[in-house]
DNA sequence: CATAATTTGTTGCGCTTGACGGCAAATCAG
DNA sequence: CTGATTTGCCGTCAAGCGCAACAAATTATG
């Protein structure tokens, strides 16, 4: 009905939210820091914090021993037993984990599969694992929801997976399937977007308000963008598909695919091929590249960097971010000659737009998607801790 | 010091702001509609509205005669005598106008110049015109600030014009110059960004939360983007420079400039050339194109559409907007064969991303930049009507 | 033309909730 | 052990919104 914005109740809820978000994002914080951070009154923070504690959403612990003058301030921490179940279905496995409100992974299980899982199978797998965990690791946990990171386009309204090419899912109502299998509210989003969110909140993009994130995987390039501190989803949730872009290619002989898209030209498969591997994880590929002194390898790296630089330059012109975060094989590609990439990007965009632009490698490891997906499940709670 | 967010005072200020913004954007509104729109209580709206009236920011008029049952509701309208001075320096002229809080242009004057104006000259021109107006048209006006729309890159922190190539301004502190010449607070921004803001708030993009705006001018292509209902400025304010992008060009012989950018390939000058004109305003160019049955003209239009479609497809992949607004000669280019352009864009981006995508022509005429610039001047007032 | 129905302004009251100030508590410096 | 400093705790205060009852102004109905 009414969105309580503008009323007193709304203020209260927003203040609770603000505290909980701080505890969630910044980790354990003293009450004193919370008052400083929120600008609220000491007494107000005290009452809000104890309200959150009563709700079981935060723990108030004894003060940390600090070496400063004055009365020690109790530490407020997001309650670790408030948890989200997160799911990442892939071609060869389904990873399921539980993530605490303190953003730490509690349990994690990778279920290898010998065939492509269907949406219904995925839901059943989640329900099964959850039922087992509920009697063991998560006996005392309070599970607030499920977040799914899906390699495909997900409609944000209803979580419908419109198309996940590698899983061969089309218009899959996986959100509803998971909700009815588990009895928990679920959220679904594109995996790369969730990676962007994770890197923004907990990784290389901490505290940065405008960033572009690109991840290079085995099957293509995905991404996400943060504008003004908020993850961009677009109208329907399909934003961030950098891999499908067609960047300019200045040298005609740099092109491999006629009318190809970015991920046709800048691809992990081509890197593997040129170093003579068929399958390899990222460290192995990076090592192989570093070890190789071959001209062909150097050529291919330079070619891919040139095309990537144009794509990044385009993004910089349009979005004027202060940071570009590269993950997966794009991190390997960038790390190989970071200065060259930075220079190429700067050369391909408006001079002022690249001022103060930083290009960094993603920090979070393989848990990135899980942490991002947990944000989906925590979103409601964080936005309004009183919304049951 | 503290940003009063989260306190009661903050609620009050936000509510005042909400009402004023509604009156500003939606035009005159009944108090009844305001209560519905804000979700606040009748009595609250009454008190807020009369507070705004006391501040001289809105007028409360007698009810409009409506044919509906029930007691008529007084109409609240943004006060037209609360005004902004707006300035648009160009190569051949400086346009100065006064815009009311009701978003209507009160006075407008185009001062032709026979040389490139300097920032200091611009400031003097503004101060001179303003002084004259203050004794005539604007005798009873309450001028709250100045907004400048500059064709160049403007740093958002301090309004420094980093580079305006056609005006030949470099690192021009035009904001400070105007502020000290007029004694009014001033804001400066890129002209195309302000065009995007105007089209978003009052033009083809009304009510649309995610849109991309591209304007084709004589000297290039500028643009702006709205994400989640907010104009994107980027870290330093340089966002929206679509004209400097390098989109993929599938057919090699479509390229005119080696390693050229979008505005090298998709250009008004090339259109003029192919129809055999040297100078023409937009209607003249459009008429010439429509009149010409020549193959060369059709070829050039199709070529430019192809390249534009790739650039737009890239933007759609990344931003998933629900609307693309085209202005200037890009509107002419699009109108020539709208279906072809839509199809080409859809073919160049992820299928789901173009679902429900609309491509429209800009609605606001030559006053677009002025109305956008007024938003700069009104921003403070609208965000916090009590902030003196 | 009179009465009913409907919508909305007006008024006074109450309640929620954050700010404020005084005091106590807990630490460190010397 | 004393003073300084920081912070928690508690009682009081007040700003401002919701609410409900009533009044006012219009249309619908017979």
From TrEMBL, chains A, B:
Gene3D superfamilies: 3.30.420.40, Winged helix-like DNA-binding domain superfamily/Winged helix DNA-binding domain. GO terms for biological process: regulation of DNA-templated transcription. Residues 19-60 form the HTH iclR-type domain. It comes from the Bacteria. InterPro entries: ATPase_NBD, ROK, Tscrpt_reg_IclR_N, WH-like_DNA-bd_sf, WH_DNA-bd_sf. This is ROK family transcriptional regulator. Pfam families: HTH_IclR (PF09339), ROK (PF00480). Belongs to the ROK (NagC/XylR) family. GO terms for molecular function: DNA binding.
């Amino acid at each position: 009905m009414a969105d309580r914005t503008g009323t007193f109740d709304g203020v209260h809820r927003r203040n609770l939210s603000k505290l909980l978000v701080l505890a969630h994002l910044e980790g354990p914080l003293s009450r004193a820091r919370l008052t400083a951070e929120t600008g609220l009154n000491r007494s107000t923070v005290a009452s809000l914090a104890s309200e959150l504690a009563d709700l079981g959403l935060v723990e108030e612990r004894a003060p940390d021993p600090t070496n400063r003058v004055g009365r020690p301030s109790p530490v407020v921490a997001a309650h670790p037993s408030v948890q989200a179940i997160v799911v990442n279905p892939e071609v060869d496995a389904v990873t399921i984990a539980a993530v605490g409100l303190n953003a730490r992974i509690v349990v994690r299980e990778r279920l290898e599969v010998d065939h492509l899982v269907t949406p219904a199978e995925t839901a059943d797998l989640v329900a099964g694992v959850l039922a087992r965990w509920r009697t063991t690791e998560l006996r005392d946990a309070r599970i607030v929801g499920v977040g799914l990171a899906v390699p495909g386009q997900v409609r944000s309204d209803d979580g419908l997976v419109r198309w996940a090419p590698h899983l061969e899912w089309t218009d899959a109502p996986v959100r509803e399937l998971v909700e009815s299998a588990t009895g928990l509210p679920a959220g679904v989003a594109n995996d790369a977007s969730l990676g962007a969110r994770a890197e923004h909140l907990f990784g290389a993009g901490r505290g940065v308000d405008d960033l572009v994130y690109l991840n290079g995987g085995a099957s293509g390039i995905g991404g996400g963008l943060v504008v003004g501190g908020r993850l961009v989803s677009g109208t329907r949730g399909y934003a961030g598909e950098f891999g499908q872009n067609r960047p300019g290619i200045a040298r005609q002989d740099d092109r491999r695919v006629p009318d190809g898209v970015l991920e046709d030209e800048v691809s992990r498969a081509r890197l593997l091929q040129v170093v003579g591997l068929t399958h390899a994880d990222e460290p192995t590929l990076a090592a192989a590249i570093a070890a190789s002194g071959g001209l062909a390898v150097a050529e291919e790296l330079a070619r891919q960097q040139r095309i990537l630089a144009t794509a990044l330059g385009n993004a910089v012109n349009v979005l004027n971010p202060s940071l570009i975060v590269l993950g997966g094989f794009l991190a390997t590609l960038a790390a190989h000659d970071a200065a060259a990439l930075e220079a190429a990007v700067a050369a391909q965009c408006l001079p002022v737009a690249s001022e103060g632009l930083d290009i960094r490698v993603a920090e979070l490891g393989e848990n990135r998607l899980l942490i991002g997906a947990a944000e989906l499940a925590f979103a409601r709670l964080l936005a309004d801790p009183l919304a049951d």
